[in-house]
């Protein structure tokens, strides 16, 4: 990535952290509101989990062996 992208990503992360502490309070506070950068961490872990699960499903369920059709002599 270009350097400007990393700078913008850092600025958005810092803004998210600052708004968590200095922004308006939530009308219904939850336990995870006390964890710094919870939504950033939750989003990152969720994306990684989606990638890992989809790769696993691709290996186990979607991909077939190269000789998949060689066993059929009925034709």
SSE blueprint and pairings:
Layout: H1 3-22, H2 38-62
What are the salient characteristics of this protein?
elongated, 75 residues, mainly alpha, 60% helix
In words, what does this structure look like?
This protein has a domain at 35-62. It is 60% helix and 0% strand. The protein contains two helices and no strands. It has helices at residues 3-22, 38-62. It is elongated. The termini are far apart.
> Over all CA atoms, what is the radius of gyration?
23 Å
Q: What structural class do helix, strand and pairing data support?
A: mainly alpha
Distance between the termini: 53 Å
Given the C-alpha coordinates, what overall shape results? elongated
Q: Total helix count?
A: 2
Annotation, overall tally of beta strands: 0
Poorly predicted ranges (pLDDT <50, ≥5 residues)? Answer: none
Strand content range: under 5%
Order of helices and strands: HH
On the 0-100 scale, what is the average pLDDT? 84
Assembly type of the shown chains?
single chain
Q: What is the helix fraction of residues, given as a range?
A: 55-70%
